[in-house]
């Protein structure tokens, strides 16, 4: 299971979901699902765009969590 730190990163940078969606071209719903950690799949292009926009490596955006059995 992956843990997404988008909400934490956006909070530190004082960014709103609407701003990130507008600036990256990523669908607002996709960002909302990542922000709330409810996304089940995300396009690699979206991940790349987020990492570039937020100026973070992928390892800072996502973290491998424990597997649920």
TrEMBL record:
Domain HTH cro/C1-type, first and last residues per copy: 13-61
Entry-linked InterPro entries: Cro/C1-type_HTH, Lambda_DNA-bd_dom_sf
Pfam families, alphabetized: HTH_26
Protein's name according to its UniProt entry: Helix-turn-helix transcriptional regulator
């Amino acid at each position: 299971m992956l843990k997404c730190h988008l909400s934490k990163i956006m909070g530190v940078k004082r960014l709103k979901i609407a701003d990130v969606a507008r600036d990256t071209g990523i669908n607002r719903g996709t960002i909302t699902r990542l922000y709330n950690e409810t996304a089940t799949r995300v396009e690699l292009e979206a991940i790349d765009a987020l990492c570039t926009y937020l100026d973070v490596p992928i390892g800072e955006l996502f973290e491998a969590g424990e597997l649920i059995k």
